[in-house]
Design goal:
The structure holds 2 protein chains of 2 kinds. The relative contact order of chain A is 0.10. Chain A is 28% helix and 38% strand. The N and C termini of chain A lie far apart (85 Å). The longest helix of chain A is centred in the N-terminal third of the chain and has 30 residues. Chain B is an alpha+beta fold. Helices cover 40% and strands 23% of the residues of chain B. In chain B, strand 2 and strand 3 form a beta hairpin. The chains are: A alpha+beta, B alpha+beta. The interface between A and B is medium-sized, with 25 and 27 residues.
């Protein structure tokens, strides 16, 4: 009996020692300071100011070089895709301007920065001799940009939304300027009877932002009031909203607050994200 | 539950052991499946990746953060310069760090998969499209300007950078793309390379 107890006691002691050693090893392993990293794999955090400076320098250097080389094809390639669709300028105008510009010592003046969703827009005054040019650098993805001139920012095409209550909404284009936005929209009536899309008041159509704030139309003159749409017909509307570019990226939906379908007035909304 | 415990207690010892073993096996099987799904999680970087194709990019997320972008761009530039230093030592005035020194600081998972000679071979393949030896003066090298075209993020801290040599006068000078995988430890401000590769024409 004594022998048995003595044997068990030995086992208990051995296991206890092993257990304590294991615990200590684990604790040392957990709390051991991490090996100091060598200099070659260390990096510094970058300030936003420096990022902006690097970004602008990279883009502006390239763009100004293209102006200096009077290389219009390079400038075309870098231009925002839809620029020519909305501007009164023609490619020939651009060629003429480039030829006439004093490109010896251009200087980049006041730069404003805007955010629109994932897009960053740098809008800069560039002086070519005594001529100033407003240049917008549109960065949809870091490291890559397109540009536009003047107050023009971007012109997007959007797709069709599924019909709601028999009404189909097809945003043909969105013109984005620095301070306002124009939505060109076709509205289809797939119902059996005529429908009325009312636009008598500025709040009849609203943009809804991600924080649920709403932006009404800037006036109803462009939208030209109420629109009766016969069954199977469509109507085109141009809706203008005073909305600065940095807020445009926050748009989530567009809401038609007074749509009369079969005599009943309804509010219809659909997704609209830039 | 109580009945099950009583039933278990009443079993003879051998049966109890068998039941415990079956339960342990079931737990292990469950854990294996969890690990497997974690491995197959698209957000997970597969260290066996040889080429960057759709499968390799599956499930990764495009990184838009400008801060991360520029941090990675500066790291990539440093790495390119470390290659330049190795090939043009006497004529190089920047940081005197060779790309070869990065081998011992590779991401642990990548280091297990790649020998030093294979690493150097991959780095040379990638860099020979960016750092060019001049034909007339062989000791002179030109570094082509590069841009990170896209960043794919895996999990929280692994970034696969797609590198494009900038167009020269609007013409694509080097056709194809290089890839550098960089893992950022943002707490300690250190980085580790977890992939090197390129697909050039």
């Amino acid at each position: 009996m004594n022998n048995l107890l003595q044997n068990n006691l030995k086992t208990v002691i051995i296991f206890s020692i092993l257990y304590i050693v294991a615990i200590i090893t684990i604790l040392i392993f957990i709390w051991m300071p991490e090996k100091k990293a060598p200099e070659i794999v260390k990096y510094s955090n970058i300030d936003q100011d420096i990022i902006d400076k690097m970004t602008l320098k990279k883009y502006m250097d390239e763009l100004i070089e293209s102006y200096q080389l009077k290389n219009s094809s390079l400038l075309y390639n870098k231009m925002e895709e839809s620029f020519w669709e909305y501007t009164s300028e023609t490619p020939e105008d651009l060629n003429r301007q480039i030829e006439l510009l004093d490109t010896n010592n251009p200087t980049v003046g006041n730069v404003k920065k805007y955010f629109s969703g994932n897009t960053v827009i740098y809008s800069a005054q560039v002086s070519f001799g005594n001529q100033n040019k407003q240049i917008n650098l549109i960065e949809d993805y870091p490291g890559s940009y397109v540009y536009s001139t003047g107050t023009f920012y971007k012109y997007n095409y959007k797709s069709k939304n599924n019909p709601i209550e028999g009404m189909g909404f097809f945003v043909k284009s969105i013109y984005q300027d620095m301070n306002y936005m124009t939505v060109d929209i076709d509205i289809y009536n797939n119902n059996d009877s005529s429908s009325i899309v009312k636009m008598e008041n500025i709040s009849d159509v609203q943009l809804i932002l991600e924080d649920e704030r709403s932006i009404s139309m800037n006036n109803v003159n462009v939208a030209k009031g109420n629109q009766v749409i016969k069954s199977g017909a469509k109507s085109n509307k141009e809706l203008v909203f005073n909305i600065p570019v940095e807020v445009q990226g926050q748009i989530k939906r567009i809401q038609f607050n007074r749509v009369s379908i079969d005599g009943a007035e309804k509010s219809l909304e659909f997704k609209l994200e830039l | 539950m109580g009945k099950a415990i009583i039933w278990f207690k009443n079993l003879d010892r051998n049966k109890q052991i068998i039941i415990v073993l079956i339960i342990v096996m079931a737990i292990l099987w469950g854990l294996t499946n969890i690990m497997k799904s974690w491995r197959n999680n698209p957000a997970y970087w597969d260290y066996n990746t040889e080429n960057i194709d759709q499968k390799a990019l599956q499930g990764s997320q495009i990184e838009y953060n400008r801060n991360t972008y520029w941090t990675l761009q500066l790291i990539v530039d440093r790495y390119i310069n470390s290659y330049l230093y190795e090939v043009a030592k006497e004529n190089y005035s920047g940081d005197k760090v060779s790309y070869k020194e990065y081998y011992k600081e590779l991401d642990a998972g990548y280091k297990k998969k790649i020998s030093k000679s294979k690493y150097e071979e991959k780095a040379q393949d990638l860099m020979s499209n960016i750092v060019l030896q001049e034909e007339q003066y062989e000791e002179h090298y030109t570094v082509l300007p590069t841009t990170i075209e896209k960043i794919n993020r895996y999990g929280q801290d692994m970034y696969l950078c797609t590198i494009k040599v900038d167009d020269q006068d609007g013409i694509e000078f080097v056709k194809g793309r290089g890839y550098i995988g960089v893992k950022l430890d943002q707490k300690r401000n250190i980085f580790r390379i977890f992939y090197l590769g390129g697909q050039y024409e």
